[in-house]
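Lecture notes, unit on binding sites. The following record was shown on slide 14. It pairs a sequence with S-adenosylmethionine.
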Amino acid sequence: MGIDVDPDWWKSLFDDVYLVTDARSVCDEDLTRREVDVVCELLPLKKEDRILDLCGGQGRHSLELHGRGYGGCTVLDYSDALLDCGKTAAAARGWEMNFVRGDATDTGLPAESFDHVLILGNSLGYLPGVADDVRIMKEARRLLRPGGWVLVDVTDGSVMRRKFNPNAWHEIEGDIVVCRERELGDNCIRAREVVLSKKRGLVRDRTYAIRTYGPDGLAGLMKEGGFADVSIRRGFSSREVEGDYGFMDHRIMTTARKRPA
Ligand SMILES: C[S@@+](CC[C@H](N)C(=O)[O-])C[C@H]1O[C@@H](n2cnc3c(N)ncnc32)[C@H](O)[C@@H]1O
């Protein structure tokens, strides 16, 4: 029997448990620093720029950028739990940062209010249809000033499919074991994630489906979203050690521009 997925899975999966199961990707400051190094290399960022970290989770990239003097970051995410985590981290450093709860397809933020929009850490492909990802790209374009830049960082779907691994597991700090069973769909990968604590028993048994894009598909998506000057860098990995890191490896970093007025 195939893996059955609730189309709204993404509304509740990104919680405190995710911060444990995905800690080796999203709670590792060295990795985040390397990712932000690439952001700074690929985009013409100025210290005074207004930067939207769309689907920014707990704001790890914005926190790193803020620490480097880019004080105009706003983090938008759907998950209250992750936003609270980011707010706590900013407050602990004494930083005033903007964390906003919203849906990336329709943020409610004012048009043309950012110089850059970042969509990092494989945060596309969660909503049910490709049309939803086009809506996210169009919303990013609406939020950018003319001439502003978007950067999308997703896993390379063509590599994921070629190296497809139907079963993966990893252990965290001797207690938590994360088991992932995966299945290839036409343009997505479906997964069942079972999380066990050796001390407490079952922590989570959930399924999800993520649409993947190869370089051509991603370039097409950005053009459909109205972007120009699409440029793709393949083969990015912020890690030094090989392993199965799911959607957080073999990344494509894509930049594009909203045409100047
Ligand atoms: C894998 S996490 C990555 C978060 C962050 N960009 C990072 O690299 O740590 C994906 C994030 O996208 C958010 N997300 C997915 N779809 C969204 C949507 N339609 N609107 C707002 N947030 C969304 C989730 O809540 C989650 O925090």
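Take-home: The chain has a mean pLDDT of 94.
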